[in-house]
């Protein structure tokens, strides 16, 4: 098949979906409003940056008028067998505005569970994305229920098993690099966060709580392992203001190093507002 994926080109979840389809022999095109400068992450994919499809998309205030027509033109040129938009907001909504079909949409979490709820800032756009979809693919019962609340007919919903292969994450993968590379003591008690730096993940709250922990347990260390997020610089400043720089590490590791990182930590913490 020729598949057109619409989503965030910096999202590992989106790129893993696309690469897996390519590995199975399908011709996979991805279009995004964000560039990805890591060739290994887009290997095997045909990547389209939407700003290159229409230079006017670089002009502030114009994007909301030009995004859908630009993607519609790309779809006409490619003539894909199926279009799959990841996240209802904004990509599912833009796919709906472009009237792409057959259309599959995948809500992932905050888009349906928070922003898309009645009264939420994206409710109307999320409903539009769901209404335009021929199939809605979800990875949990929570998202299935949210999709139904947004108007998805139950018969159009498909669930996929969202899982991790635990075999690679066991204690046998625990290593010393995490502590040694930072000159942390061998018995350091490592707290790990894998959440991106966004308002709904409350990393600032985690940092403030960690300061109290460290005052009582000097061996405590905090690892903030995330690829991106609009609040990263703000969190970095907070770590400095609280004099925690020597005991807090900011990391971004490739997928193949994630099992060792997780196995080498002692506690994992997540404070997100919603989770699929």
Protein model, in words:
It contains eleven helices and eleven strands. It is an alpha/beta fold. Strand 4 (82-86), helix 4 (88-97) and strand 5 (103-106) form a beta-alpha-beta unit. The chain is elongated and about 60 Å long. The protein starts with a strand and ends in an 8-residue tail after the last strand.
Q: Shape from CA axes?
A: elongated
Beta-strand level of the residues, as a percent range?
15-25%
**Annotation, overall tally of beta strands:** 11
Order of helices and strands: EHEEHHEHEHHEHEHEHEHEHE
Number of helices: 11
Cα-to-Cα separation, first versus last residue = 29 Å
Give me the Rg, rounded.
21 Å
Strand order of the largest sheet: 3-2-1-4-5-6-7
Q: Which structural class do the helices and strands define?
A: alpha/beta
> Low-confidence parts, pLDDT < 50 over ≥5 residues?
none
**Biggest beta-sheet profile:** 7 strands, parallel
Keywords:
alpha/beta, about 280 residues, about 15% strand, seven-stranded parallel β-sheet, about 35% helix, 11 helices, four-stranded parallel β-sheet
SSE order and pairing:
Elements: E1 2-6, H1 12-23, E2 27-32, E3 46-49, H2 50-53, H3 63-78, E4 82-86, H4 88-97, E5 103-106, H5 110-113, H6 123-132, E6 135-138, H7 141-149, E7 157-159, H8 177-180, E8 189-193, H9 203-216, E9 220-225, H10 232-241, E10 248-251, H11 258-264, E11 267-268
Parallel strand pairs: 1-2, 1-4, 2-3, 4-5, 5-6, 6-7, 8-9, 8-11, 9-10
Helix pairs in contact: 3-4, 4-6
TL;DR of this structure?
This protein is an alpha/beta fold. The protein has helices at 12-23, 50-53, 63-78, 88-97, 110-113, 123-132, 141-149, 177-180, 203-216, 232-241, 258-264; strands spanning 2-6, 27-32, 46-49, 82-86, 103-106, 135-138, 157-159, 189-193, 220-225, 248-251, 267-268.
């Amino acid at each position: 098949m020729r598949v057109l994926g619409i989503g965030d080109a910096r999202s590992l979840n989106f790129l893993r979906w696309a690469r897996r389809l390519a590995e199975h022999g399908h011709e996979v095109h991805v279009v995004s409003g964000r560039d990805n400068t890591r060739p290994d992450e887009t290997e095997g994919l045909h990547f389209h940056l939407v700003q290159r499809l229409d230079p006017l998309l670089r002009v502030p205030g114009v994007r909301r008028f030009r995004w859908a027509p630009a993607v519609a033109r790309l779809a006409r040129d490619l003539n894909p067998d199926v279009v799959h938009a990841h996240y209802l907001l904004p990509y599912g909504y833009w796919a709906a505005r472009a009237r792409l079909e057959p259309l599959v949409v995948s809500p992932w979490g905050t888009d349906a569970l928070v922003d898309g709820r009645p009264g939420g800032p994206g409710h109307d756009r999320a409903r539009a994305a769901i209404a335009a979809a021929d199939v809605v693919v979800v990875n949990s019962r929570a998202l299935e229920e949210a999709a139904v609340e947004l108007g998805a007919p139950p018969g159009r919903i498909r669930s996929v098993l969202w899982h991790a292969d635990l075999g690679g994450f066991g204690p046998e993968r625990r290593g010393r690099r995490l502590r040694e590379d930072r000159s942390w003591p061998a018995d350091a008690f490592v707290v790990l966060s894998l959440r991106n730096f966004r308002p709904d993940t409350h990393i600032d709250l985690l940092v403030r709580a960690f300061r109290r922990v460290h005052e009582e347990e000097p061996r405590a260390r905090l690892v903030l392992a995330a690829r991106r997020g609009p609040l990263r610089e703000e969190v970095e400043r907070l770590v400095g203001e609280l004099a925690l720089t020597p005991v807090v590490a900011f990391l971004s590791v490739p997928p193949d190093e994630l099992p060792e990182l997780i196995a080498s930590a002692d506690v994992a913490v997540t404070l997100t507002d919603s989770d699929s």
